[in-house]
Amino acid sequence: MRIDATGRSCPEPVLMLRQALKDKPETMEIAVDNAAARGNCTRFAAHAGYQVTVQEEGPVWVLQLTR
Fold it and tell me: What residues contact residue 26 under an 8 Å CB cut-off, 6+ apart?
């Protein structure tokens, strides 16, 4: 599953991520385009028990979450 949260400011990307993680998927991705969302989503995912890797794709960061 991939969430596109580009163009959205915090806290909306975190809320989108929280909703998607309710089913506890093994993996997922979220794309964000601002540093605050990147940091907040990374912290939220780590707190939820996911390992997070970040890839930069131009002006967008793609956070890959793995349980």
Answer: 66, 67
